[in-house]
Amino acid sequence: MTHLSLHDLERAARAVLPGEIWDFLAGGSGTEASLEANRAALERIFVIPRMLRDLTDATVEAEVLGRRAALPVAVAPVAYQRLFHPEGELAAARAARDAGVPYTICTLSSVPLEEIAAVGGRPWFQLYWLRDEKRSLELVRRAEEAGCEAIVFTVDVPWMGRRLRDMRNGFALPESVTAANFDAGAAAHRRTSGSSAVADHTAREFAAATWESVEAVRAQTNLPVVLKGILAVEDAARAVDAGVAGIVVSNHGGRQLDGAVPGAEMLGEIVDAVSGGCEVLLDGGIRSGGDILKALALGASAVLVGRPVMWGLASAGQDGARQALDLLAVELRNALGLAGCDSASAARRLNTRVTRYG
What we know:
By secondary structure, the protein is of the alpha/beta class. It has a single domain (6-350), classed as Aldolase class I (TIM Barrel, Alpha-Beta Barrel). Helix content is 43%, strand content 13%. The strands form 3 sheets. The protein has an 8-stranded parallel β-sheet with strand order 4-11-10-9-8-7-6-5. A two-stranded antiparallel ribbon has the order 1-12. α1 packs antiparallel against α13. It is globular. The chain starts with 5 loop residues before the first helix and ends with a strand. This is Alpha-hydroxy-acid oxidizing enzyme. Its cofactor is FMN. The active site is at 252 (proton acceptor). FMN binds at residues 77-79, 126, 154, 228, 250, 283-287, 306-307.
């Protein structure tokens, strides 16, 4: 079947995934207000296109964390991808490699990080801060030794938000899917009515990261460190002072604090606040090349895309994940050209308006 948009892939994935696994992927926390707001915020942003520009040498390539990428896109970290397809992270990482974009390996990957990194391409490693600091820093060391190019330190998960879909489903991991990067015991597999076993597991394993944690990670590695989950201008400014290479403006896809502001709402202010001191990326709600254009126009150097790649993975494995990225490339090329931009960097000179229609 030909898929013409990411929403087509979403429908295909929903048709094949069991209901509780779909809810684990699609759901947010609480009333899911922040989940819905991520889309609403992007839909309120409109770009003012420029005309009479030479598009002869137009490109969708971009520089992301100091290296060229085929798109200003990285695959976001998503846990337990073998829930969605038997090859899980390996298939998604191959798709990202072939599409020429970075792939972020999750701490909670269902394949060991070394095996995923061995796929090649541009692997990044996403770090959750564990109660045992030594285990956290050991993951950083392993990632660097495996050839990862960056550490994406998620700072907004001292524990998982209350994801009511998972709690109502009594969601637990099947025995065939595990946290492959460390011994997690049986907690994530223990099904209990009215409770999420995955949340119970992370409550035992995770700890609140602090600025001292950021310094410990930076001291452990020569890789660039990116902080994911920044929404406050004050935190963005402090991140620059802490010497990080980048920040990801994100409310964790609406899966942590329900009621947290959408990243797209804060992006422009944060770009102004960091004033070039580090790269700024946007995560949350990206569903088209037009959304990427909006993020670029607001000053982002790139975006992270998670759920849509998983839709492709669920519907058709590696080929489906690659199709999701290819659709973004086609749509971004179209959006850039129609906005009068010959590159991602040119899009950062566009003006935007926030407007309510309907």
